[in-house]
Amino acid sequence: MPRLIDTIIIHHSVTPRDQTLAKSIASFDYNHSVRLHLEKNKLGYHVAYHYVIGGKGDWKQTRADDEIGFHASNLTVNKRSIGICLVGNFDIETPSPSQLWALRDIIKAIKGRHFIKEVSGHRKYAKKTCPGKNMTDKMILEAFKPK
Questions:
Q1: Cβ pair 68, 113 in contact under 8 A
Q2: Residues 89, 13 contacting (CB under 8 angstroms)
Q3: Residue 53: exposure state from Cβ atoms within 10 A (0-12, 13-18, ≥19)
Q4: Which of 14, 28, 44, 109 has the most crowded Cβ, counting Cβ within 10 A?
């Protein structure tokens, strides 16, 4: 039975935005296998996020939508959500325009497959600034409901 997905959680990597997408994914893959003890998923990664967006707006799906990701610090939310991580530390820098366009495109595609009621930052579910002080709730809302 497919899982009910109604939420998208946005994260930042707290790594430099100019780090390549491949290097970021390799780092997440290693760290999540060690720290979270995740087994390889259907796409061959240990990554907790479903999608990763690089600083240039390039992106990769790293977990199938129907797999539970371990990204929201809350198992109940993880069971019904998709996690998207933008590469960068948005406490000290801002997402690139290309990242915001990619985020909008990915959210639009996910909305075409699932009835998404909410898109929010990780900070809603954890005592963190994630996805960073410089990625505002307004930016997230604009990606969810573009003008």
A1: no
A2: yes
A3: buried
A4: 28
Whether 57 contacts 102, CB under 8 Å: yes
**Model confidence pLDDT, tens digit, residues 51-104:** 999 999 999 999 999 999 999 989 999 999 999 999 999 999 999 999 999 999
Parse the chain into domains and list their residue ranges: 7-144
| Token pair 């999608």 in the structure block, residue | 51
Separation between Cα atoms, residue 59 and residue 142, nearest integer Å: 19
User: Please, which pLDDT band fits residue 146 given cuts at 50, 70 and 90?
Assistant: confident
Superfamily of domain 7-144: Peptidoglycan recognition protein-like (3.40.80.10)
Give pLDDT, residue 1. Answer: 60
pTM of the predicted model, to two decimals? Answer: 0.96
Beta carbons within 10 angstroms of residue 134's beta carbon: 16
Query: How many Cα neighbours within 13 Å face the side chain of 100?
Result: 17
Q: What is the side-by-side strand order in the sheet with 7-12?
A: 59-61, 51-53, 81-86, 7-12, 118-121
The Cα-based distances of 73 to 11, 87, 100 in angstroms read: 12, 19, 24
